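Work Package 4 report. The design task specified in the project plan requires that, given a folded chain encoded as structure tokens, an amino acid be chosen for each position. We show below one input record used in the internal validation round.
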């Protein structure tokens, strides 16, 4: 079977590329080759099933990678373009704190909008077909038994391989001379020593987490932090995970809106105003009650039944320390299986940001997370996939 455009990978970037190619030229024959039994599997899992598909504040600052390349892409396809692209596919939107979701709050709506448009416009889905090689031929490319004038590689990175992206796409582009930078899990929860936080599994606190290396803060973020049996999770932890390495320290400030002196003052106040209150109950209303057990242990108070009047000066100071400066040591991350994205990927330098075409092989394009760009949480990673997919599709269809 011969195609005008073959797209490898039926994820966010590949599907956006196909829509954009069809819109540019409705006559062309497009095939999407997907290793899973269906396309868009990952889209269904995004945004906790709600799909945070873009952000109203799109700028290169939120992306890691070659800034001038990223800026050129975002200049062509910003948040207005992303919202309009999906509106044309039937997706009305809602905005929460800049994050854009489908109005129906269902990630499946985003996946369906792409899949249905493509099916209605005669695009072939070639599923259950992992691509292992792309061969340059005299008049285009061959991919297995299929041939095509142009090929778009949109196979994603290595994050969440159970959803399809296992890194098998990198070698498809490396074969044509494109370099691969080292790939790491990003937006992933972190493993830490757990002796101090034992028993806190499932407890959520609003906190600032700071990643510290040799006394220097490497990354910091605030929001809802989740204690787990292996360490820490939650959006702020995922945001700093990109920079985390074994042996670094995570400082957790569980009262980020209060100064250390105010927290210490409040601990003193409670101890002196409620002398008969047991330690286990003393901080109720100030912090999550479950924090009392590890906090008192950290502070050297032997039992939660010890009354406030029996707290020593060091006990009081250490309680405040626990709440403002709990220190945990990073022992690892939760790996690609649990990561939302991968950092690193195919280097941008041999791609044209105006077309997403390879400078090393005419007719070969790349889009999405396979490239050496990743971003913070907030709809930016999907935005990158749509943006590069739309640019690649449009140009491959001309
Ligand atoms: C749980 C989770 C939640 C997320 N939530 C959000 C969110 O709310 N907002 C946001 O912006 N980002 C989110 N992300 C990140 C975002 O989903 C990805 O950055 C984005 O999907 C990347 O798009 P892509 O098309 O490049 O790759 P993918 O979506 O990974 O698609 C790649 C496709 O290629 C296929 N494929 C791979 N190799 C081959 C091969 N050799 N042959 C054929 N097919 C192949 C895969 O099966 C897959 O279908 C989330 C990620 C995860 C895992």
């Amino acid at each position: 079977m011969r195609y005008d455009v073959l797209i490898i990978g039926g994820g966010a970037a590949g599907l956006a590329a196909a829509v954009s190619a069809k819109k540019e030229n409705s006559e062309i024959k497009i095939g999407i080759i997907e290793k899973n039994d269906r396309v868009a599997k990952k889209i269904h899992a995004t945004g906790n099933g709600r799909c945070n598909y873009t952000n109203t504040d799109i700028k290169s600052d939120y992306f890691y990678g070659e800034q001038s390349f990223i800026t050129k892409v975002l200049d062509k396809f910003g948040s207005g373009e992303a919202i309009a692209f999906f509106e044309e596919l039937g997706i009305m939107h809602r905005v929460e704190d800049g994050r854009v979701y489908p109005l129906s709050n269902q990630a499946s709506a985003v996946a369906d909008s792409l899949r249905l448009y493509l099916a209605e416009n005669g695009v072939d889905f070639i599923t259950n077909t992992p691509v292992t090689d792309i061969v340059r031929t005299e008049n285009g490319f061959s991919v297995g038994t299929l041939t095509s004038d142009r090929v778009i590689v949109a196979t994603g990175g290595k994050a969440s391989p159970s959803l399809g992206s296992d890194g098998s796409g990198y070698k498809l582009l490396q074969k044509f001379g494109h370099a691969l930078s080292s790939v790491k899990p990003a937006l992933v929860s972190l493993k830490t020593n757990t002796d101090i936080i034992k028993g806190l599994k499932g407890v959520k606190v609003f906190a600032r987490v700071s990643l510290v290396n040799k006394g220097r803060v490497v990354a910091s973020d605030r929001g809802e932090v989740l204690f787990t049996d292996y360490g820490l999770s939650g959006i702020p932890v995922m945001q700093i995970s990109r920079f985390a390495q074994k042996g670094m320290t995570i400082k957790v400030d569980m009262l980020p809106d209060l100064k250390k002196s105010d927290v210490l003052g409040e601990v003193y106040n409670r101890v002196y105003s409620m002398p008969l209150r047991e330690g286990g109950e003393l901080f109720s209303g100030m912090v999550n009650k479950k924090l009392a057990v590890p906090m008192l242990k950290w502070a050297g108070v032997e039992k939660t039944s010890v009354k406030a009047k029996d707290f020593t000066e060091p006990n009081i100071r250490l309680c405040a320390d626990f709440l403002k400066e709990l220190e945990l040591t990073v022992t690892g991350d939760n790996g690609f299986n649990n990561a939302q994205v991968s950092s690193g990927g195919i280097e941008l330098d041999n791609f044209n940001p105006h077309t997403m075409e390879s400078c090393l092989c005419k007719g070969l394009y790349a889009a999405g997370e396979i490239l050496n760009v990743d971003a913070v949480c907030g709809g930016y990673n999907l935005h990158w996939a749509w943006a590069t997919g739309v640019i690649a599709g449009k140009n491959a269809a001309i």
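DSSP finds 13 helices and 20 strands in the chain. Validation will be extended to a larger panel in the next phase.
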